[in-house]
Amino acid sequence: MQKFLINKEALSADKVVIHGQDAKHIRKVLRLKPKDTISMTDGHGTDFTGCINKVSPECVEISILSEKKSLTESNLDLTLCTAMLKHKKMDEIIKQITQLGVTRWIPFYCKRSIPLSGQNREEKQIERWQTIARESLKQCRRSCLVEIMPPMDFQQVLAFSKDCSHRFAFWEASDRPLAGPFPGENNKAVVLIGPEGGFEEEEIRRAAESGFMSYSLGPRILRAETAAVCACGLIQYLLGDMGCES
Ligand code: SAM
């Protein structure tokens, strides 16, 4: 069964109330009743099991039975940075990377990215992306929401990446395969994926100056959203919890 996202601040005396669409889903789709158990998370790595006390059209009242640290989060702190693409592609990336256990996502502007105009537009987009991240979390039973950062410019992305041990820039012109070992001081990785028109060579040079190695994803040109998902899956395999040694 899916995990429901609760606000830890809303927990009082080991009780929590779920409202809105989630309450409707519990009542109408899952048809849960009093005494049924339910899985929940606070979106910050803690899971809860609860027992339903009351189901009404407005809300579902639950008693918390147990609380534990999540077992579904990766040991790898993985940041995906994708150049701004068309809306639908960005939405799809958030859904997929939630499933892949990515820690945070940074959309960024570079020479060939698709611009988002106006401050309000950016705020609205971030809200929309956060909603997609919340919905995706429930489905895949994760316990940490993907942290959605406000769009940055390329220089800010490079500065952000400074404290990551593993810096990967995916570039179709690179001939370096993604093969370890990847020694590092911390288990923090950052991935750069360019826009549909690709990175400019000068951007790859600047990334290299900031400690990024450029890597190939093979001889075919992948769509940016495919490349993002593929790169995150491979890196979770090599450094995170999708491989056999984790
Ligand atoms: N403009 C490029 C072209 O047509 O040759 C393609 C850019 S690709 C659609 C978008 C992004 O996906 C690239 O900037 C890169 O980050 C990533 N990408 C796609 N295919 C790749 C590959 N084979 N190796 C490494 N990165 C790749």
Automatic annotation (TrEMBL):
It is found in: Cytoplasm. Pfam families: Methyltrans_RNA (PF04452), PUA_4 (PF20260). Keywords: Cytoplasm, Methyltransferase, rRNA processing, S-adenosyl-L-methionine, Transferase. Its main location: cytoplasm. One of its GO terms (biological process) is rRNA base methylation. The keyword Transferase applies. Residues 73-236 form the Ribosomal RNA small subunit methyltransferase E methyltransferase domain. Its EC number is 2.1.1.193. Gene3D superfamilies: 3.40.1280.10. One of its GO terms (cellular component) is cytoplasm. Specifically methylates the N3 position of the uracil ring of uridine 1498 (m3U1498) in 16S rRNA. Acts on the fully assembled 30S ribosomal subunit. Belongs to the RNA methyltransferase RsmE family. This is Ribosomal RNA small subunit methyltransferase E.
